[in-house]
């Protein structure tokens, strides 16, 4: 045996000895176990070759092991080099997959090139709870589910029907594997980093690349190392690690970076706890987050019937952690023993306040000391551990005759979790205090909440254990203050109904009039008797390989699904006479650009969903949301109305934006819609990574002010032309010529400003062809795929 194999074997024996062994049946893991031998070989080519044997972080190892051709790369410069990668898997949810599938159909492929799954979770509205809401969704979104199911059958995609669970929980339970690379059309795809997967949220067009079997590109990220030491104390949970970190890094702090956790504290965390931490890494803009392989991952894999994956990962454990002396671009240390619970919000996930200071924070802002609803679960915090700890608190309260003072909702992440909670009596306990168990679906986390307890626009506060809290996110009401906290803190606080209640220090009055203080929560990491499988009817049907005759179901009269027309290719000249449709002031997330909630039902119909384009954007010229001047008519109108008017009159337009334009989600509609309505260029102070790529994929050119202050020079009526789009090259600036009407006269002044861009050679080809998909289809036709 070679020295390196002997070393790996001895590693295997030593490493495995430290794991708690759970013996359960295993399922067929052949399609979900990474090809570790090949990955290690690929990594070795790059590491020993162009990197000269330098020690690497775990994230770097996994990425370089997934290079499309490790022999073709001749240099890697972080934040510059585009890595051409080969993902192991693609996962999509029902809202984003519609457009991804419609685009994949244009590529003309017989089946997907990598294992792919679709999860029906976003289109289920929370109202009466559980199965009733699933049944309603099956009727109201029947055509969407039929479309996705038929397309899944045709292209060999695993189809998880409504009610089976939320994408990230299902992926964690079934597909994530240490050292694998996965992409998903949802920004919280990084959840799987809790199981050692590099899992990255992308737009549908990126998913189409992987599904079409062509390299998927990622600009080499920098790596933030988060060193965890100590151990979480009684009231603190993994959620608090990320709530705290979000406060430190802010919503932009992770942009262009992968967050990699290391340190002695890592071994103290449960696998699902690590998933929670990785899930919410999306909130700081990180490309993804990842943990090294730990004993809790081994236990979780075994408990979820993937013992062979656990064994293989153990064998290759030296691949699944950072090398000694690996270099991180930035290191943040968190002593978990010192960490206290945090509450983040409202309206932004990086406004982080320690629980002990939260009452002062509320008083200082003059907010009403009242909670209207507490919501726990979702893809972020619905693990067995979360639910057992929550149940321990509810049991204490029940014993003292206490009930929540406000509505209390529970969202299980999957039917496996729901069934396990039911078997263990947790659901019964939660229902005894009036908790309403919602469907295994996104519901109020994505605005799918038929809320009846408040008036329209009523100011109120809710507490959730979800991950995202931009304005209007949960109920469509921009006056709902949405705070994020651990499920334990949310639950305890619902029993007081007050925002200023601190369950660690404050008391409630029990049924006998005596003071009652919660003891700290407790619960098992994994169920002693294993997970229930959940209802068989939710199991995805076996993936078939020959479905050439399967028809994809789309009604020509549908208002929710519409076949796509390819975007026109670039005309080959500079742009002239572009109008600034809007100069946006402040935050402009993908929720502002393409709102969710009721609009989710039009995700598969580009024409109809475009009626929500930028309706949340604040116009810097008039300080109004969704109101711009139509320069052709002189009248004010909504943004989609004016954009459509310009399109009908063959006037192309641009958007001028502030920092981090497109932050938030992987929602590619935010890029598709502006392109569809006639926008070839967006100029911003900076872009959020996923959205910037989404724009490029759709043939929109994202330009960045070279001098940020030039933002102040532009306004809504300006006429724009370009110098430098012809002959566009990586790293070469583009000049923007601005023609401005002088106040009150017919004269114009004209001046130039400089912009830069991040387009690679390949991305410039997308722009030239009109979209990335046009390029794929053209290559497919010419047999280049
Ligand atoms: Fe669904 Fe919310 Fe999770 Fe997104 S973050 S997948 S909307 S539960």
Automatic annotation (TrEMBL):
Q: Which domain of life is it from?
A: Eukaryota
Protein name, as recorded? 9789_t:CDS:1
């Amino acid at each position: 045996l070679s020295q390196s194999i002997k070393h790996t074997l001895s590693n295997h024996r030593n490493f495995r000895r430290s794991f708690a062994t759970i013996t359960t049946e295993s399922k067929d893991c052949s399609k979900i176990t990474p090809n570790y031998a090949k990955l290690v070989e690929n990594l070795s080519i790059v590491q020993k070759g162009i990197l000269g044997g330098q020690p690497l972080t775990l994230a770097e190892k996994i990425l370089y092991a997934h290079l499309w051709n490790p022999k073709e790369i001749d240099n890697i410069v972080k934040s510059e080099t585009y890595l051409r990668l080969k993902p192991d898997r693609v996962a999509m949810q029902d809202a984003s997959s519609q457009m991804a599938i419609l685009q994949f159909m244009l590529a003309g492929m017989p089946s997907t090139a990598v294992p792919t799954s679709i999860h029906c979770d976003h289109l289920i509205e929370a109202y009466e709870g559980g199965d009733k809401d699933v049944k309603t969704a099956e009727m109201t979104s029947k055509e969407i589910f039929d479309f996705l199911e038929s397309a899944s059958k045709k292209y060999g995609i695993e189809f998880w029907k409504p009610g089976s669970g939320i994408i990230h929980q299902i992926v964690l339970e079934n597909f994530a594997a240490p050292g694998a690379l996965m992409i998903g059309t949802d920004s919280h795809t990084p959840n799987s980093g809790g199981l050692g997967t590099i899992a990255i949220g992308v737009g549908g067009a990126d998913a189409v690349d992987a599904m079409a079997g062509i390299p998927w590109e990622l600009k080499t990220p920098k790596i933030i190392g988060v060193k965890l030491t100590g151990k979480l104390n009684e009231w603190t949970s993994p959620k608090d690690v990320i709530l705290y970190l979000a406060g430190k890094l802010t919503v932009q702090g992770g942009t262009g970076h992968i967050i990699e956790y290391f340190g002695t504290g890592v071994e103290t965390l449960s696998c699902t706890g690590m998933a929670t931490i990785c899930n919410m890494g999306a909130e700081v803009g990180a490309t993804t987050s990842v943990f090294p392989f730990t004993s809790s991952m081994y236990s979780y894999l075994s408990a979820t019937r993937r013992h062979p994956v656990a064994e293989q990962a153990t064998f290759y454990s030296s691949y699944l952690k950072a090398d000694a002396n690996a270099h991180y671009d930035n290191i943040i240390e968190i002593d978990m023993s010192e960490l206290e619970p945090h509450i983040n919000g409202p309206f932004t996930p990086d406004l982080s306040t320690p629980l002990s200071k939260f009452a002062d924070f509320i008083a200082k802002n003059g907010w009403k000391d009242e909670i209207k609803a507490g919501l726990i679960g979702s893809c972020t915090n619905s693990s067995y551990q979360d639910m057992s700890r929550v149940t321990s608190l509810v049991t204490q309260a029940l014993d003292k005759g206490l009930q929540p003072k406000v509505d209390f909702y529970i969202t299980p992440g999957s039917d496996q979790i729901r069934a396990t909670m039911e078997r263990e009596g947790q659901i019964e306990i939660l229902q005894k205090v009036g908790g309403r168990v919602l469907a295994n679906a996104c519901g109020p986390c994505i605005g799918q909440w038929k809320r009846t307890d408040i008036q329209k626009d009523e100011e109120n506060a809710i507490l959730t254990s979800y991950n995202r809290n931009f304005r209007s996110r949960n109920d469509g009401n921009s006056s709902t203050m949405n705070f994020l906290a651990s499920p334990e803190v949310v639950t305890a606080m619902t029993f007081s109904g007050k925002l200023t209640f601190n369950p660690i220090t404050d008391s409630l009055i029990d049924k006998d009039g005596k003071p009652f203080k919660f003891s700290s929560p407790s619960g098992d990491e994994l169920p002693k008797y294993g997970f229930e499988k959940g209802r068989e009817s939710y199991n995805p049907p076996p993936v078939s390989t020959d479905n050439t005759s399967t028809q994809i179901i789309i009604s020509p009269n549908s208002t929710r699904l519409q076949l796509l027309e390819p975007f026109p290719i670039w005309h080959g000249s500079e742009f002239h006479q572009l109008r600034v449709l809007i100069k946006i002031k402040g935050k402009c997330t993908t929720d502002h650009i393409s709102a969710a909630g009721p609009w989710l039902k039009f995700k598969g119909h580009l024409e109809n969903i475009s009626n929500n384009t930028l309706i949340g954007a604040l116009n810097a010229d008039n300080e109004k949301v969704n109101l711009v001047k139509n320069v052709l008519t002189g009248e004010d109108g909504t943004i989609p109305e004016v954009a459509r008017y310009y399109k009908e009159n063959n006037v192309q337009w641009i958007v001028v934006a502030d920092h981090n334009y497109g932050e938030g989600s992987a929602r590619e509609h935010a890029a598709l819609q502006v392109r569809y309505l006639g926008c070839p260029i967006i100029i911003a102070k900076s872009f959020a990574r996923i959205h910037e790529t989404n724009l490029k994929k759709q043939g929109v050119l994202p330009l960045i002010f070279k001098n940020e202050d030039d933002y102040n020079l532009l306004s809504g009526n300006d006429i724009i032309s370009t110098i430098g789009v012809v002959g566009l090259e990586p790293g070469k600036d583009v000049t923007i010529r601005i023609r401005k009407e002088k106040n009150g006269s017919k004269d114009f002044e004209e001046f130039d400003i400089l912009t830069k861009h991040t387009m690679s050679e390949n991305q410039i080809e997308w722009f030239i062809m009109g979209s990335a998909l046009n390029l794929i289809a053209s290559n497919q036709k010419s047999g280049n795929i």
